[in-house]
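Something for you to look into today, if you have time. What I am after is a single protein written out in full by you. I want to see for myself how the chain folds. Could you add the entry underneath, on a fresh line?
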Amino acid sequence: MKGSAGRPTAGGGGRSGAVRTDQVVRLSVNLNPQVADEIKGYADRKGISITEAVRRAISVLAFVDGAQSRGASLNVEEGGSLKEVLFLV
């Protein structure tokens, strides 16, 4: 699919998968250099735009927040060890 600038976009929105410009909200955020580097690095490693990287980060946060609000816990297994991930409120 193509974004408003004619470049392919990942994810999309709506039922057709196309991004409609009348449904896009443009936001400006201030990030410290370390956070900006993290999001840029993730985007580079995955071969996606910074916008898509931010969308993914927000989706993960929404999923985790919703699960935790229902009483679920988030666990990560690494090297045979299971660790619970806690988020501060």
